[in-house]
Structures are given as C-alpha cells and as structure tokens.
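Deliverable D5.2: sample structural annotation.
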Amino acid sequence: MTTSPPGCRPETPKDQKPRLRADAQRNRDRLAAVAAEAFSENGSGASLEDIARRAGVGIGTLYRHFPTREHLVEVVYRRELELLSIAADELSHREASDKALEEWMHRFVSYMATKRGMASSLKLLVTSNSCMFTDGAALLRNALNDLLQKAVADGTVRSDMETEDVLHALSSIYSIPDTPEWRKRAHRLIDLLMDGLRRPKLG
C-alpha cells in the first residue's frame, strides 16, 4: 500500500476531477506534450499562445484546461516523471541491463531540459505543492534504483555505488551553464558516468 509522505494529504474522491470527454482529454494530453517540447526548446521564453498554436487549439482551450502557467507546469512536470518511470520499465525488458541504465540516463537529460525551462514556475509551486516534488523524487529514485539493481545483479556495473550516489551525479547536470552546448556536455557527462559505473570485462 502506498502512503503519502509526512505532511502530504492523500487524494480523496472529493478531490478528483470529473472524467473528461475523449476529445477534451486528447486536447489536454496534446497541450501537455507540446508544452514539454516548448519548455525544453525555449525555456521560460515559451509562450502559452505559441503552445496553444502548436497544439492546434485556441488559447481559450488552453486556459480551460490550465487556468495559469503554473497549472500547466505542474501537469508537465508530473508527465515527464511518469514518462521516465515508464521508460525504465520498458528499457529493462528490451535492453541488456547496463544498456537500459545508460539509455535511461540519456533520456534523463531531456527531462532536465524541460525542467530547466520551467524553473521559475516550479519555484512558485514549491511552497504551494511540496508533495508534488516529494512524490516526484520518489518516482525518479525508484525508476533509477530498479535499473541500477538489475545491472548490479547481472554483474555489468559496480556494486559499490548506491542509487543516491548516481542520482546526485545525474542531478548535477542541472547546474551546467545554460549555453547552446549544454545538452552535448550533459550527454558527455552521462557517458563518463557510465564508464565509471561499468565493470571492466575480463579476458
């Protein structure tokens, strides 16, 4: 049974919103997907009007789903973490354990790009919805831990590294200066991290 972190109130039926019509749900999902791309590409300069246009809807439709920029950012933030969690499961079933871990960490760079683009709004959400970040951190840690432990069990990566160590190293990507080259540098750091994690092949 999943329990909420201290201070976080679990969602009740009263909190849950009515189910959307299929077309409305498609619009909402499309807006969230396009917004993630826009925040990743343009950072804080991404406009809601441009997001609506790229999603093929009017700005009024966007505001009906997301009354403020922070409402949209919250949905995008949760979506990106859920996609990382899903990716961890899919990769673990499709790739060798060390390759799955490596590919997931490269996808982590895309998550970081979107997060950097939403930084100012996320700061506003820290005080109003701290549980969102607590839940998000747990989801991220669990995804990485599953991949790392499978690679350890297979003997493809070192066993003396803890999940928190790797997560801390990954999170340091966020501090890379925001230049046109930052993504390339981030992916190089992932390669360097994997070189340090892999166990050398014998013989």
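Annotation notes: The longest helix spans residues 69-94. The chain has two domains: 21-67, 69-197.
The annotation will be released with the project's public dataset once the embargo ends.
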